[in-house]
Amino acid sequence: MLSFKRCLSILLFLFFAAASNAQQSTPITLKELLNLADKKAPELLTDSAAILIRQSQAAETRSNWLPNLRLNYQADIGTSNNTTGPYFGFGIIPSSSGGIHNTSVTTAVGDNLGIAALDWEIYNFGKYGAENKVANSDIKVEQNQFAQSKFQLQAFTISNYLQLLRLQDFLNIQYRNIQRNQQIRRSIESLAKSGVRAGVDTSIAEAELSKARLNYIELKNQFKQQQLQLSVVTGLPYQSIVPDTTVEATLINQPSAYLFNPDTSNHPLINFYRSVYQNNLQRETLVKKLYNPKISLEAAAWGRGSSVNTSGQYNDVSSGYGFQRGNYLVGLGISYNLFDLRRRQLKLRTQKASTNYALKKLEEEQQLLAVSASQADVEMQTSLERLKEIPNQLKAANDGYRQKLSLYKNGLTDIVDLDAALNILYRAETDFMQAKYNYANALFQKAITQNQVNTVLNFLK
Q1: pTM
Q2: pLDDT tens per residue across span 197-244
Q3: Is the alpha carbon torsion for 173, 174, 175, 179 positive or negative?
Q4: Which of 378, 220, 201, 356 lies closest to 280 in space, CA to CA?
Q5: Domains present along the chain, CATH in parentheses
């Protein structure tokens, strides 16, 4: 019977443990989180829409070569009482007929006019081609900016994921610290009741336990804040973002994880600044061609009617409606403004300054990436050295704490020495946690700087 009850108790325990685990969030891998960020991040959706704008603008630019074909018609009634003489046209000219009478005539005239006019800039010595190249270059810049945003989002997601992992480790350390303080308090209470220890030790232990609990509460808040940061870019409920705690150990156990060559030829940051520089070069070419001569084809056909006949007699107003004469005119013209030489020089000087700035930004980014890679290498090597040494510190601190606890229970040391040993153990555990985080962070910083994130991700499940 006892055996049956024991088996039943074990089965019930396993059932409740399984149910409890089922309710907990399944850890999400870094790869899964990056994939979600790539699809759900609001800033990427915005940047992808900006590409469509540039593509529409390029399509608009490609249509600049289209001619202007204007159709005009008007039917009028009024006087034709003018004198002959030249003039400059200012806006709308009411009438262009000359004087045909010696005296002023105010008789109403009816007339109509229909015109089809073609104006086509058929050749401008490369201006259309330069405009199209600039428009295509604008698309390239926008696409590279989108790739840069994805790259920066990837770096942001990795950094926050590693911070979340660090806080998870810190929470585990703090939880163990609370358990140790509870153990110390129980020992003190037992010793105080038997008169071996003074009651003041209980108060000190209670204060240390309360401090450990407050630290745990603060860490939980930081953990949730980090979850919220990742929730924004992935669209996941923040409670479900639980890190995979095997990441650091997996990377540390891969001695070749950091042995990769930099991919600087296809780096998103370099590509963006390179495309901006190329875009400015294309704009220089456009400025050079913007003020070139223009060859235009001009053509017009028109019909006209008037109630005034060829002898200058004013007939019925209605006789002026309907075309009585028709004409056409075709011409090929070239135009060039000599003062455009100076305008071109000034505009080209401004554009060259902008091109030089873009080149300096490109060189600056290349130097920053090189420095960042060197810094990541140094930090990674330092982290490896820490990881080799810290186990010694951790073992010594753990042994020291156990010895102090045993001595305290036997009345051979005081609460101050025991708390000091506990703090040394706590610091050793946090140092070990920080060393693991520093290594993983340095490794990913190197991978990000050298555009080899996927190489490192392949080591993770």
Answers
A1: 0.81
A2: 556 778 888 898 999 999 999 999 999 999 999 999 999 999 999 999
A3: positive
A4: 356
A5: 28-66+125-293+340-457 (1.20.1600.10), 73-82+105-123+305-335 (no CATH)
